[in-house]
Specification:
The structure holds three protein chains of three kinds.
Chain A: E1 5-9, H1 15-23, E2 28-34, H2 36-43, E3 49-54, H3 65-74, E4 78-81, H4 85-98, E5 102-103, E6 106-110, E7 116-122, E8 127-133, E9 138-140, E10 158-161, E11 168-175, E12 188-192, H5 202-212, E13 215-218, H6 220-225, E14 246-250, H7 256-259, E15 267-272, E16 285-288, H8 291-301
Parallel strand pairs in A: 1-2, 1-4, 2-3, 3-10, 4-9, 5-9, 12-13, 12-14, 14-15, 15-16
Antiparallel strand pairs in A: 6-7, 7-8
Helix pairs in contact in A: 3-4, 5-8
Chain B: E1 2-7, E2 9-10, E3 17-18, E4 24-25, E5 32-33, H1 35-51, E6 54-61, H2 68-75, E7 81-86, H3 95-109, E8 112-117, H4 129-137, E9 140-150, E10 155-160, E11 164-170, E12 174-178, H5 190-196, E13 201-204, E14 218-224, E15 233-234, H6 240-253
Parallel strand pairs in B: 1-6, 1-8, 6-7, 7-13, 8-12, 9-12
Antiparallel strand pairs in B: 2-5, 3-4, 9-10, 10-11
Helix pairs in contact in B: 2-5, 3-4
Chain C: H1 7-34, H2 42-48, H3 66-79, H4 81-101, H5 104-115, E1 121-124, E2 140-144, E3 147-158, E4 165-171, E5 181-187, E6 193-195, E7 209-220, E8 224-225, H6 231-267, E9 269-270, E10 273-274, H7 279-307, H8 313-342, H9 349-357, H10 366-377
Chain lengths: 303, 262, 379
Amino acid sequence: MSRLSHVIAAGRPVGRLVERARALGGPVLGLAVGPAQVADELARTGVERVFWFETGPDTPVEAQALGLAELVANRPGHVWAGRTAGERVLLGAAAAALGAPVLTDTVDLAAPDGRLVARQAVLAGRVWQTVTFDRPVAILLEGGSAESDDSAGPPAPVEPMAAQPYALRQTDWRPTGRAPVDLKAARRVVAVGRGLKAESDLGLIEALARALGAELACSRPLAEGLGWLPKDRYVGVSGQQIAPQLYCAVGLSGQAQHLAGARAAEIIVAINSDQQAPIMSEADYILCGDLYQVVPALIKALP
Amino acid sequence: MRIVVAHKWAADPQEAIVTSDGRIDQSRAQPCLSEYDAVAIALARGLADSVGAELVGLSVGGPEAASPLATKTALARGLDSILVLADQALASADSTTTAQALAAAVTELGDVALVLTGDCSIDRGARMTPAVLGGLLGWVTLTEVSALSLDRTSLTVERELEHGRQTLVLSPPAVLAVAAGAVEAPAPGMRDVLAAARKPVRQLALDQFDGDWGPLGQVQDRTLAPAPDRRGIVIATTDPTAAAAELIARLERDGLTWAGRP
Amino acid sequence: MPFHLTDEQEIMRAAVRQFAEAEVKPLAAVLDREHRPPLETIPKLADLGVLGMTIPPDYGGSGTDYLSFILALEELARVCATTAVMVEVHASLVATSILHFGDQAQKTRYLPELAAGRLIGAFALTEPGAGSDAAALTTRAEVDGDDFVLNGQKIFITNGGFAGVFLVLAKTSPEAGSKSISAFLVDRDRPGLSVGEPERKMGIRGSSTVSLLFDDLRVPRSALLGQLGQGFSIAMRSLDGGRTGIAAQALGIAQGAYEEAVAYAKQRVQFGQPIARLQAIQWLIADMATDLEAGRLLVYQAADLEDRGLPFSDVAAKAKLFCGPMASRVTHSALQILGGNGYTEAYPVERMCRDARITEIYEGTNEIQRLVIARAALR
């Protein structure tokens, strides 16, 4: 089996993916989708070559799925990508071209004797399984932070690709008020759940986040059902999976699907009025009480 | 013209029992139509009505996917008919195998303008099946779709991305994964449930299609995920000020500092 | 005798559960606290097709079997007993009586309105001097030309505060005996009808329970339901089916309390472990689960007999006699498991305890059920 790896970059840093792909021991090629800058950044991450699929300002990366899949089909190997919507579609197209399984929720990955050995968390993180593969696989993993993106040595050559993109055009873009956030890079995170009574109370939680020097995050219902916060701020099995030093869960019950995204935190603080909430048995510090009393007290007490 | 909603008859992993040696017992977990799929069907029903298209459900999975309970549950949500590809080999199939089976069924069905799916499946939650399906069909694939409209030649799609709302124009066919909160999916009415029994159900057999439907990897072992090693220190909140002080003191002892905050 | 629900019954149950969780459960504590009926839920229940489950599609209903309706009641009661009894009286007592005994004009006029929730039905039988002894009622309906003129008083009339149509039982002849009673469909806007203040009750506090006063209330002859003198048998037939409905309400209340108790027992830690690991709690849970299983089979059996056109009266009475006290037992055990928390309004179990108690009383007390059962057994 080929030990070749492809790493897909679609506008976000992927240094850690390249690092992990290299750890498997084979050559690593970069597949850049986006403007020239994406290709240039990918070229400096330690990949051997970069194949660049250009997209214009009004074309989402998904338009290049077909061309990217064709390239991978001609050079079979493992394919790596991050977890955004666009990255998933590109990875899926590559997996389709190869007939490759897609590995999600991977805890550990190694290639000891040419076979690939993956440890995966399944059943919403309740069970770990070891699976071996004798074929190329598609691997969905967190990309990694910008600092890890610069490797020593000269940049890899960039080869523009002339694939015919899908006819797909952005006609309107309305940004949400909030700035994009990289939760993965945050050392401290304050996450809020349905214990918050009203959207207008978000200010209170934001104030706590500021006082703790933390990023603001939430559970899935707040981002999707209620839409109080943008989707890049929700933590969970299908959202962000993070490993901060401090994870402070406020009014958040902590269903398995949510906790799967925060379990790797070093310290978990739970502030919740429901003593029975699952988060209470997965926390280092448990404050069972009304968040509307505890949070203001915390903000006031923080130096 | 047909609009297809691919949906999955599956159980919530929360319902499964995991034994101490990592064995998964699904016998007590009742499969259901997830709310993600219900949202996709509700959105698709509105779209199909707006263009006069036929709305076909497509379910791929183990033998229970073909049970009358499974098909009627989906039909009661507003599908015109349902196509089922059920086989033991697909019972715990991964995203790629599931997508291959879906692609085979979509191709067999023919005249399909759109395949819609829910945001994710309830059992695996990998959110990869639409992407692989789109790749197999060679169709434009978009996820996180919150609204769409179709006229004769073009499809307008809106989606909520991480930092904004995007409008896109494309030509069908396409595979679209519908965002979890795109529309309300209210409970089906009693009349809809009774009407479901009279709607057509068509079954496909896996051996109609070429391909190796075996597992793509070999599971070597399963263990219970390691239990969280947490301290579980309870801080009383009867006096919030004292509670705050104690938490801060403990966090400081753990090495957190408050200098250099942005 | 294995009991299986059909696919349709399972799907309807799931649909009503989804609806109940989303639309009914969030209101339950509010209705209880504010002593007010769930008026905002009525159009939603109509859209779902629940208000018309006992009404055929020809009359605008959803026309399900009776067991499906019973499952819907159970699911509503699981989260809100008040909402369940509103639907039970409306669909089971009033709509069913019009369907079985109404003439074409009455069916055409009332059933589509009842199915659509534009009219809610109330059943006016009980009087200050006629509770369990229903035949002792004294409200009179006297013939006056082409009309009947009603005079008298009714009490404890469920849905009475907002119902659009009342099924009223009144004496049409001065003799004693059940043949002297007739049934009338009385519209709310008839002059001579006055509706009293709602009762302040121990439980089902959101349910509108009022007294009615008829003062020379005039209805046309076309308001007579069934034949002259058929009223008592109409009332008894309605209450036979109604028993299964109240048994289902009791079952649902018990199920709701049971689920609260199980969830609590798994999470609540005392003596260093979840209390579910303590045998004292396990035995309570085991008894509750057994109670529920037994009650469920009785209720479904009664509904199934009715669906198959077989005699069901005594089985319905058994279902109600078992499930009413069962709901009291199970809700009290649940409260015991929740301990001090269960006694507070922060948890729904104290409300469920209060709500359960009425199911031993209304639509035939435990004692009346025993009478029905013994009569059938000794026939």
